[in-house]
Design brief:
The strands form three sheets. This protein has a five-stranded mixed sheet with strand order 3-6-7-8-9, with helices on both faces. A two-stranded antiparallel sheet has the order 1-2. Strands 4-5 form a two-stranded antiparallel sheet. It is globular. With 133 residues, it is of the alpha+beta class. It contains three helices and nine strands, in the order E-E-H-H-E-E-E-E-E-H-E-E.
Length: 133
């Protein structure tokens, strides 16, 4: 499967291995395409799908969708991205818990916007304030 970047970004085509394609849903595939376009543009140094697993306590774990090495203002940051077509309360609680337990990562929540709303993605950084879309 080949992914094409949106018209707003530099044209990029990436090919994912079958084992990775089978794990990602369509929204995650679209975000992977955006991340790859950003990598080519120099906005991030690279990304990996489900590359880390964080212990939240006891036997509870959280696996973010993407680990991203981002470049912002000449500084490098480790970001963890969670991608959803829509958000349930339990998913928001889980990512906020992870952000509190692992403050050295930047956590971002990504929601795909509907085509009638202009398409693309809404991206919010997780902090101590409530998230809303």
């Amino acid at each position: 499967m080949r992914l094409q970047a949106g018209a707003a970004q530099q044209a990029v085509s990436i090919t994912l291995p079958p084992s990775l394609r089978e794990k990602m849903n369509r929204t995650e595939l679209a975000w992977a395409n955006e991340l790859e376009s950003m990598r080519v543009a120099g906005v991030n140094l690279g990304w990996r799908f489900e590359a880390v697993r964080l212990r939240l306590g006891g036997t509870a774990f959280y696996t973010p969708d993407f680990l991203v090495v981002a470049v912002i203002g000449g500084h490098t940051y480790m970001e963890l991205h969670e991608v959803k077509g829509f958000w349930r309360e339990a998913a928001l609680v889980r990512i906020k818990t992870a952000a509190s337990a692992y403050p050295w990562f930047r956590f971002k929540v990504i929601r795909k916007k509907r085509k009638k709303d202009g398409g693309g993605f809404d991206v919010q950084t997780v902090d101590s304030r409530p998230l809303s879309f």
